[in-house]
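Illustration: TRAP transporter large permease protein.
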Amino acid sequence: MSPVEIGMASVAAIVFLIYMGVYIPVALGVVSFVSIWLMRDNFDLAMNLLKIAVGDSVMEYTFATVPLFTFMGLVVSKAGLGSDIYDVMSSGFRRVKGGIGMATVGANAVFAAVTGSSIASASVFSKVSVPQMLRYDYNPRFAVGVVAGSSVLGMIIPPSAMLIIYSFVAEQSVGEMFLAGIVPGLMLAVAYVAAIWFMGRFFPKFVGGRPASDYEFLPWSEIASKTLPTLGLIFVVLGGIYTGWLTPVEAGATGSLVALLIALARRTMTLKTFWEALLETGHITASILFLITAASIYSRMLGLAGLPNELGDLLAGSNASFFMIMVIYVVMMLFLGTLLDTASIILIVVPLFLPLVEPMGLSLVWFGIITVVGAEIGLLTPPLGISCFVIKATLNDDRISLKDVFLGALPFAGVMLVVLILLIRFPALSLAILN
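Result:
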């Protein structure tokens, strides 16, 4: 077999193994290692490339952001800031049709800015928002669909683990990726709120519910006490990066310290919960860095196989336009999204398409936002749909099936696709803050 054929077979083998349940970094690392061995018929070369992959990836200073932002998000979650923001949003939207759903989107957008995890958002708001919506007679499918749809905001609104992973693969600045994610994340949140209003106006049976008129308006003092800690944390982290006062690593460290002080001031942090946050941070960090290491040797394997160049020559030979390349890219991500998680999609697809995008003079920061938003749609689509599985597991309610969660999330996946098309058509939306 030629190197190109081995490379193509390895990509197919990786997708197959992940779909069969093999741990993602193991599938990426083992298949890439064996492929390099077969291509060069040299075991020592494969071993040396593996050592280089470890040294050139997780040993980089930039990846100190991973444990810092992870720890910050876990402390914020344990401090109860998510439920506070939800209370304020619910009070503001209490008389609007679908208002609690809109409040869930708004709270998720704010919560995403201090957690960076769609899984954390799905878990928190499944417990906080869904029971409230059911209490006011909302359609159960709509209730879980809102939580599933808005939970993906955690992966695009910075700080985001997926933006960090992309920044490594594409060799882009983590700080620039964070800043570029702000406008698309807010766009998606506004689009969700508009979609809920539209569904409430034209498809009232799907939304259901009644105005939460008995939901008391919160006094300004209580609104301030519930929102200022979160807004202050967002200001410290994103403001520090935007002004250049803090690097992403320093912003992560500062944010972790501020989050810890907030939790201590609210008396929600005990030695037990602090230890649990540290352990969970270690587990999440280890899994992400293991994934990045495996992705590094995978990228080297693709380079040795010459697969990106072959793909580029194929598309150039067919005179494929920018529009056609983006259609192929998005369709590929949507298809893989039904099988794989977001990180896997980024690590498998991006190294193949980067050599095509760079010669066009397109911004790789913009391309990263397109990649993350496109891959995030997979969190809402069967059969994998990680956010949907998390919501179902967290609720543990026999009245709501996994099918209900997927069907409820379907309109929000459609909204994400519309936003993705707008971001592709108007790259300035992603780069506005950077210019």
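Reading the tokens back as a structure: DSSP finds 22 helices and no strands in the chain.
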